[in-house]
């Protein structure tokens, strides 16, 4: 179709990697207009954790539309919103011993981050935020200031302020505990780093290259924040909603962030929906201070509630994610062992894993080959060097196997096509790893 070249802005990105016109999608499959079928390991950049057009949610959504339920209600109290809140409280917060106020922001993830940063700044009266190397928090100015990626940052056209950067887990090598460094600069009045309002962190850096932090590090981070009376914001927009194996990605660390942002897979159906969870003592918003027209996207409330009811009423789904995650890890370790010359370690969490090819060109060659074989999968990281597996969590195990087979085959072909044959020094450079260290 010519129209896309004619009048769609050059800003397109995913469309360039997957140059087809897509028409239909169901579960873990997406179809182009010629009827070609692709296994979807891109899954809306992690916004389709429950698969495309999940039949359970679709039924609820159609019922709601059929009954002329409210679609956009600004922030009016509606049935759909109340039902979502009740379910979220009962099935997500209470069983985990969590107590938060819910703020509905505009429907994109970055809007939730903007709100979270405002809450922290206004509560503490401090103006800086600490974020981490390779972190991604969205592309509106406040969130962008906390984002590392230079391409995104430079597009702002103005100086981005109010954020100090600290080394993420493992940034300086495995032996350096970067929270000790954080504690040190915050304890030293001449370090040049003023006490910030908050620290914002992803437990797995999605856009930054699928780097996951260790749970001890996360605990230490909370301890340092408490010590210096800084709020801890966990940006769980991509890692949350089950991706790592638990509803929130920080559950295993046993921490309680002061603020949590959720979006991407929260609605379950791919409908835009963002949420900020605020510990009650920090909820000092004045009426209407942070607003937005679409804070009451009721169709998203309906499907988000259905998603919680269907998948988070007991621990069955968690177990399923764990089994699949173990399988993915084993397969990636195997691929790395076969084609990575043994000098690597497989890492990643749950169903949030990747293969670090170190070199972006190699990673892109692999993903283009995969696409030709019927698998959609994206790259992430500073140089697009990491192949990121984000298939729906609900994927049938046979299709998961099939998708990874395609990855394996593509890795093999790309490595064979390289100038230097297999089993040579070539692989000393082409380190295949699912952690970008
Ligand atoms: C995607 C993402 C965002 C931004 O969400 P948008 O809906 O694209 O604005 C923020 N933080 C993280 C961790 C993300 O993955």
From TrEMBL:
GO molecular function terms attached to this record: diaminobutyrate-2-oxoglutarate transaminase activity; diaminobutyrate-pyruvate transaminase activity; pyridoxal phosphate binding
Pfam families assigned to the protein according to its UniProt record, in alphabetical order: Aminotran_3 (PF00202)
Pathway(s) served: Amine and polyamine biosynthesis; ectoine biosynthesis; L-ectoine from L-aspartate 4-semialdehyde: step 1/3
Annotated GO biological process: ectoine biosynthetic process
Family statement drawn from the similarity comment of this UniProt entry: Belongs to the class-III pyridoxal-phosphate-dependent aminotransferase family.
PANTHER family: DIAMINOBUTYRATE--2-OXOGLUTARATE AMINOTRANSFERASE (PTHR43552), DIAMINOBUTYRATE--2-OXOGLUTARATE TRANSAMINASE (PTHR43552:SF2)
Protein name, UniProt field: Diaminobutyrate--2-oxoglutarate transaminase
